[in-house]
Structures are given as structure tokens and as C-alpha cells.
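Two proteins, back to back. First:
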Amino acid sequence: MLPALFVSHGSPTLPLDDVPARDFLRGLAAQIPRPKAILAVSAHWETAAPTLNAVAQNSTIHDFHGFPPALYKLAYNAPGAPEIASELAGLLERAGLPARLDTSRGLDHGAWVPLMLMYPQADIPVLQLSVQPRLSPAHHVALGKALQPFRESGLILASGGFVHNLRALDWNSGPEPEWSQRYAAWMDSAILERRTDDLAAYRRQAPEAVRAHPSEDHILPLFVAYGAGEKATRLHHSATFGSLRMDAYRFD
């Protein structure tokens, strides 16, 4: 089976930035078998209920403002996978997690930024799953568990941010602050030790959790990947702009 991955996509400019996380993502595809399809779980698609995009051809959504013009010229128009979207909706339904299909949405930058670095040819079918910020981490772990059969031939790529507080960024790229390091260390040990109950309660138990994630959208994809696998391996850790942690994990 293919792994479930969690990656941090960082700034939308990641494909243009000379940072360690970009180099890591460029080499990541070589570490796993080529998937028949990719399910991207992005922090940038928020819905009330689990929703899968079911389109024949993905468009590229530039869901950001104020960045360099070169960024808006980037496109990742990978084929879609509407039949697989329907199959996965059925898996979620049978697990008591009714899902919806969206027949028009393309790929937001939480999906296409890491995919562009991993699979630049854009020749693997991609579908996307939303997150539900009003629901719990445990809900997202359950989503991952229900989607485990997809790993027989497909790659689950959960994309968010390990630490994501835009108001706390250091645009001069200073050293990572201690509060970010404390939070990341707690999360890393909880993930590797498979402390599911602790992770579900991370907002109360992890030091600096609310500071690391003022809103939960960017950490929720991690719980989907966690639920879709068992053994965890940390693949990468780095920080940009001070506290923007770019950690990545593999779940087998």
C-alpha cells in the first residue's frame, strides 16, 4: 500500500523560494511508488460536511492576493478523477460520514503547491477533499480511517502547516522562536508514539497550541493522514519566516 503523507505547504511562493522545504518536496515523489491517483486534503477548502471535487479536468485556483506576478502564471491543471470521488464518497458514507460531491471546484494552492513540486508533469489524476473546521480532530482521524482502502493504489496527500500563525511570522527570516519549538516537539512525540487521545486534545495539552494555530484549518489535514495509516515517520522539519514550521510525516 502507498503511504498517507502530511506536508506543510507554507507560503504560496514556495515553488519560487530557495528554502529546504522546497528541496524536500522536489525529492519526495522518488521515495514512494507512483500512484494511480492522488487525494489531496487541503487546509484551504473548508466545508460544513466532507466534500470531494469530482471534475474531469482540474483548474488552478490562485486563492491569494498581493504576491509576485510570476506566482499567478503558475498552473497545475492535472486530470480529475470523478469516478474515484464517487467511490470515496461511498467509503465515507459507509463509515457514517456522509460526503458531498462538488462538480466545479479545481485545486487550491494547498493542493497544487506541493503537487507541482512533487509531480511537476501534472499527469496523475488528482481529487481533493475538504476539511471541516467546526468539527473535531477526532472527526478528521475518522475520515482518514475510512479512506484507508484508497491507499491500495492511491496516495493520500494531506497539506497544511505544522505551525501556522501568520501574525507571528518574522518576514526577515529570523530564528525560530522557542514557543514554536516547544509546540512542535510535543506534537512530534505524540505523533510518533501514536498518542491518539492526546492528539485529539492537542489544543488543551500541547504547549502553545493556540498560539501555534489560532485557527485549526492548517492542522486538520494532519489528522486525516494520521487516521489513514499506522506507523508514523517524520520525513522533514524546518521553519521559514521564523515560526512557519514546514514539517512532514509519512503514515504507513
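And the second protein:
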Amino acid sequence: MVLRKSVIVDTNALFIPREFGVDIFHELERLGYSHIIVPKAVLNELEVLMQKPGLKGKEKLAAKIGYSLVLKYASGGSGRCNVSIVGGKDENRDTDRLIAGLAAKLDAAVFTIDDDLKQELTHAGIQTVYLRGRNRLEVSE
């Protein structure tokens, strides 16, 4: 299996630090990813979730933690990861389509826990990273 050097992070993957206590950025580095990409559309989704009136407190907190971690790592605040935020603020496309297209264009893997997206990416020959055993990340074969 050949690991790609870049990985694109989906919105739901950014809930993992709060929900499972997994340091996803450390885990991605452990798996050999040197460049972590977060589409602006993912940050937009997190912003919407943080402000959504009907969302439960722990879900809002998970969105806020994920959002904060991306900003921290993207600004070089950790010194461990090369995290880039890509895309425009006014991105209108469906986030899953945007991620799939970006992964194909950049030959990057995708970190997601969305089963439908994982299946679509696998069929397209795009490697996925997912949560395994609630405590570590793993790369699809």
C-alpha cells in the first residue's frame, strides 16, 4: 500500500477529538501524512453547526473544538503539522463533492467517518483514513 502525502479532512472527522479523545493531527502524522488540507467549506459547516439553535451542547462543543484545532494548526501554533485551509468562503458546492474532486485533483487521501463518502471515494480509487476501534486512525487498503 502506498500512502499519499496529503490528506483532506472532512467535517465529521473534526468531531473525533471531542467525541473520542483522539489527537487526529498526531494520528495523521503517525500514518505518514505530511500535509493536512481542510477545505474552507468544512470550516463553514462547522461555523453553521456552532450557531445552530437546535444542536445539543456536546455537538456544538465538538464543532467548536474541531474548528479551533484547525485554526491552531493552520497558524503554526502546534509546530507539528502542516495544515492548509483551501478554497473560498463563498464555496456553494456540496462539501462531499468538493472533497472528492479536490482529492482526485491533488492525489490526496480523505479522512472521513461518513460511510457513504468512504464508499464513493473507494470506488473512485481514492484512499481513505477512518477511525478504528474508537482510539486510532487507520488507512483503507
